[in-house]
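Hallway conversation turned thread

IA: we were arguing at lunch whether anyone had actually written out DNA-directed DNA polymerase end to end. Turns out nobody had. So, for the record, here is the sequence (344 residues) and right after it the structure tokens. Reply here if something looks off.
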Amino acid sequence: MLLQGKKAASFARKPDPDVWAVLAFGEDEGLASDNGQLLISAWAGKDAHADVTLLDDDAIRKEPALLFDALEAVSLLGDPRVVRVRTSGDKIAKLLIEAIEDGDKSDGRFSAHLLIEAGSLPKKSKLRSAAESAKRTAGLQFFADEGVDIEQRAKQALKEAGVDIDPEALRLFVGDLPGHRMAANSEIEKLGLYARGLGRAVSVADVRALCATEFEQTLSTAISATLDGHPAAANAAFEKLALAGTAGISVLRSLQFEVRRMLDAHVRIEEGQSNPNMKLRPPVWQSEWPAYRARLSKWPVRRLTRVMERIYDAEAQAKRAGGSTDAVVRVLMNDLARAAEAAR
């Protein structure tokens, strides 16, 4: 059985009682982990505690009997048991498939439920195929969170933590959240700890102070100065990044991300969308939108397309050269800053 997206999430909250094993997978391992925890809670039942044995690739490869010993063991306290296996792919697939097939043959073969969590698995994966074809095992495929899902989850998590946050601060916080579920969970937890005992609602200033590191601020300055046409400021920011040991390729990737966001902004403006600035990721706040529009006027779609080509060329050149990419990136950013300066 294979369930995807919302159907997979629904199953994790309320699993089929005939299913004893689950393979939860997707490009974002954090999603598999979060839904795996929901599944364990559902298997345990209301107000009950599950006895969980956590295993991984290394533990099972070193001692294959661990998997079956854990599945056959009975809790001394009578708690429901779950064997939770985190695997990076098909390294221990043979043993996991054997367990899935054994559990499929007999209803009471094992004392514990089996939960397997993995990253992205192709359709040809033997482990995925075994889970999908088994009668008493479910394959749950999860996809990356959408913007609305991220906002709802952040809002719910902060509410449960007793955190009051201004609406604009929430939008800013959600807009800056990383797409990866585990990393996003970490940022939500950090905000919850920051707000504990604050005595007021979290403001935009609080979110900016909490989420923006010195590195991120310097990197943002370097990209903004480059695209706004301030060569001296861009060079100074790049120098600061270089002294801090920042790889040139990281700067190149950030530049690429911002150029894509500008292309997205052009498309939304051309389509006549209302409040296109708030639909960008991360959003551009109303107070910052006039300056951003001025930047867009210097970089029409055709020029941005050429910039993307320059970025690809710079990355290829850096890979061919082997060593540091700093010189290649510095030349590119200087050229772009001077082009934007001339377009004023």
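OS: looked through it. DSSP finds 16 helices and six strands in the chain.
IA: good, adding that to the notes. The radius of gyration is 25 Å.
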